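Researcher: Good morning. I'm working through a list of sequences from a screen, and I'd like to move beyond sequence-only analysis. For each chain I'm collecting a predicted structure so we can compare shapes side by side. This is the next one on the list. No need for commentary yet; just the structure.
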Amino acid sequence: MRLLLVRHGQTPSNVDYLLDTAVPGPGLTALGEQQAAALPEALADEDIAAIYASTLIRTQLTAAPLAAARGVGVLVRDGIREVSAGDLEMLPGHTEAGHAYMKTVFAWAAGDTGLRMPGGESGAEVLARYDAVVAEAADSGAGVVAMVSHGAAIRMWTAARAANVDVAFAAARPLDNTGVVILEGSPSDGWKALTWAGAVVAPAGEGGPTGRPVDAE
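Model: Good morning. Structure tokens for this chain:
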């Protein structure tokens, strides 16, 4: 299966750098709406058979133009929602709170899945719910699937599950709004990242998209 993980369009909380992870969350800004409207053309070469979105409104609004262009419905699943910030909810993401949030997320990707976000989920819980939606999509038989999800969740899941993406790579590359990570594989055989925000991802052990080793980023 070819899996397209798409970050949602811009929200007011993105503009204000807030850790806003609760359901249903905010809608899109005017720029976010423009970003969503541009997705069908940006993904025109992808033969998308199914489109998923999380239970947060921003992903559903982002997915809507793409779904309309492809003539398919949007499958809403809680499993691909953002990593809950727990006690850090609505704190500024560019402060120590944001650092603690991302440090926890990438600790999960590195294997410390028993660690729990303060007042929130454990890595095992987040990976299990995300894995379940990916497995559902794979079981559907769809060749190409787009999932409109969230920045931290996409980066964490990809670093944990793609053989050629490590924590250093994902940590060094935040995803812009409507940025896309494209992977290929299956739950049984594993995953390989093909592109990250348009840049080719090298096989494990080779140089990164800029030609430098991933672990040196």
